[in-house]
């Protein structure tokens, strides 16, 4: 097959490309330039998608003996990822920009261009297991549970998955680093990137305030209605947040307060005790079925609401438009805008049944 290997400049994508070459595919490497001003993205251990990373990707491609290109996706990244991120926070929701990037950039824009150029598949270094049985894709958790990325891939359509390759799904991260060292890849010991790549200093609140300005509002005790303080914008808060609330007086019981809800129109941020964060029901919109099999009646499953952690046994139903999920165990800090992913546990590795965007919780 003709395979386009998305090479971020990290160890995972380099080894994934190497495995595609070793499997006998005709491989071409590509690095995505996602910023019109690469210097504004992080560098070193905390970054991704930087000039430094493009150089690392090129060196890995040269060692593998494959052609290498840099494609400019900065404009689309800004529109699809950054502007969506800002807009969601302004609306009082909590988005996952990595999920959006996978959906809109790596497996929509990139895959579209790859198909137009005659490639059969896009190969990435994501940790997830993928198989196609009788033309139907099956996306599962990776062998390395700590690195599993099936959550941020669960928004991909079956057609996108049919043209995707995840060579690392059956490996542990330690094994990937060992293989990189054996192949003399310079990125073998390169630290993993983390946090949000387009926020240079990691200060999400300041980034959003710079984009949205200040929209003052009140911090209100949910139970009593008492005004506890003021803030400069609901975009500076997320459901479940405990630190940085700007409340001077302690709660009557002496326990910490948490953000319970956000009201962008009135500018009200409601806070309260931790036990009021408990969620037992979730509604979700925009359902996606990677294996083209919508739920048929009440379905026992395990749901996940964050990239790492936040899982619970549940019963999910699909009414033809929305997902209705009843949790068997309470979850806390679940926010509208987050993705919820449904899994079916099995011996082969939990199968992704579907995903949706959380619209309401109770």
From TrEMBL:
* Record GO biological process: methylation; tRNA wobble position uridine thiolation
Keyword terms: ATP-binding, Cytoplasm, Disulfide bond, Methyltransferase, Nucleotide-binding, RNA-binding, Transferase, tRNA processing, tRNA-binding
Which locations, inside or outside the cell, does it occupy? Cytoplasm
Looking up Pfam families in the UniProt record yields:
tRNA_Me_trans (PF03054), tRNA_Me_trans_C (PF20258), tRNA_Me_trans_M (PF20259)
**Gene Ontology molecular function:** ATP binding; methyltransferase activity; tRNA binding; tRNA-uridine 2-sulfurtransferase activity
- At what residues does the UniProt record annotate the site feature described as Interaction with tRNA? 126, 338
What HAMAP family does the record tag this protein with? Answer: tRNA_thiouridyl_MnmA (MF_00144)
Know the name of this protein? tRNA-specific 2-thiouridylase MnmA
């Amino acid at each position: 097959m003709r395979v386009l290997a998305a090479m971020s400049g990290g160890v995972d994508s380099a080894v994934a490309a190497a495995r595609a070459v070793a499997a006998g595919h005709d491989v071409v490497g590509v690095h995505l330039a996602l910023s019109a001003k690469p210097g504004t993205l992080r560098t070193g251990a905390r970054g991704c998608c930087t000039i430094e990373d493009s150089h690392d990707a090129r060196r890995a491609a040269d060692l593998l003996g494959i052609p290498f290109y840099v494609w400019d996706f900065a404009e689309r990244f800004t529109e699809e990822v950054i502007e969506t991120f800002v807009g969601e926070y302004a609306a009082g929701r909590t988005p996952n920009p990595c999920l959006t990037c996978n959906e809109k950039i790596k497996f929509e824009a990139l895959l579209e261009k790859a198909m137009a150029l005659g490639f059969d598949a896009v190969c990435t270094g994501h940790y997830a297991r993928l198989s196609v049985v009788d033309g139907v894709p099956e996306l599962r958790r990776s062998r390395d549970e700590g690195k599993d990325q099936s959550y941020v891939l669960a928004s991909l359509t079956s057609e996108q998955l049919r043209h995707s390759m995840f060579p690392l799904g059956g490996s542990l991260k330690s094994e990937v680093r060992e293989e990189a060292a054996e192949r003399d890849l310079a990125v073998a010991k390169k630290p993993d990137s983390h946090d949000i790549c387009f926020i240079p200093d990691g200060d999400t609140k300041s980034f959003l305030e710079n984009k949205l300005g200040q929209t003052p509002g009140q911090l209100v005790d949910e139970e009593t209605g008492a005004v506890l303080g003021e803030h400069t914008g609901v975009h500076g808060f997320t459901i479940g947040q405990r630190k940085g609330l700007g409340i001077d007086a302690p709660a009557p019981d002496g326990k910490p307060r948490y953000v319970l809800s956000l009201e962008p129109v009135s500018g009200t941020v409601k806070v309260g005790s931790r036990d009021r964060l408990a969620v037992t029901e979730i509604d979700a919109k925009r359902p996606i079925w990677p294996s083209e099999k919508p739920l048929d009646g009440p379905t026992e499953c395990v749901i996940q609401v964050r990239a790492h952690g936040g899982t619970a046994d549940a019963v999910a139903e699909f009414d033809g438009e929305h997902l209705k999920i009843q949790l068997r165990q309470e979850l806390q800090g679940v926010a509208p805008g987050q993705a919820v992913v449904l899994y079916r546990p099995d011996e082969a590795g939990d199968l992704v049944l579907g995903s949706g965007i959380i619209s309401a919780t109770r």
